[in-house]
Amino acid sequence: MTTTTDALTVLKGMYAAEQQYLDAGGPGSASFAPLAPFFAPDVVLHQAAGLPFGGTWRGHDGMERFFVAMSAAWESFTMLEQEFHPAGDVVVVRTQVRATVRGSGRELEFPILQSVRVVDGRITEVWPFYWDTAEIAAAAATA
User: In the chain, at which end, N or C, are there fewer CB atoms within 10 A of the end residue's CB?
Assistant: First the structure.
């Protein structure tokens, strides 16, 4: 069983590693290795089907493929602010994002609310919810 403190430590570490990964160029430029220890081998990421990087991504290989798909849509993806709301082994995270669409250069700011489950010190499941998936999908379609 994961305590609230453990879950927050895992998430804060993962988000810091993710931002470093993205800042270093993400897929093709940076190694996924620093992110891998934060995710359970059978992690499941559920992205909204209407997004260019939508679908269900499973395991470390799935997470790497997700980052490739996300990188195809976004030239940059910066987490501006985050709030963490723990509830046992689930933490709800509100993140304000600034992203630049690859290809068009259009910049968007939007919130993402994620429900993240942490078990035995690793992220096992992630459910992201976007404020306006239609706007994000339309903007990213120009990538």
Answer: N
* pLDDT tens over the chain, length 143 residues: 455 568 889 999 998 998 888 888 888 888 888 899 999 999 999 999 999 899 999 999 999 999 888 888 888 888 899 999 998 889 999 999 999 998 889 999 999 999 999 999 999 999 999 988 888 888 877 65
What span, in angstroms and rounded, lies between the C-alpha atoms of 49 and 46? 9
CB atoms within 10 A of CB 52: 16
**In the beta sheet, which residues pair with residue 117?**
90, 125
Rounded to whole angstroms, the Cα distance separating 65 from 47 reads 13
Check residue 142 and give left, alpha or beta (phi > 0: left; psi -120 to 50: alpha): alpha
Residue 137 phi/psi, 5° resolution?
Answer: -65, -40
**Token pair of 20 as six digits:** 């470093």
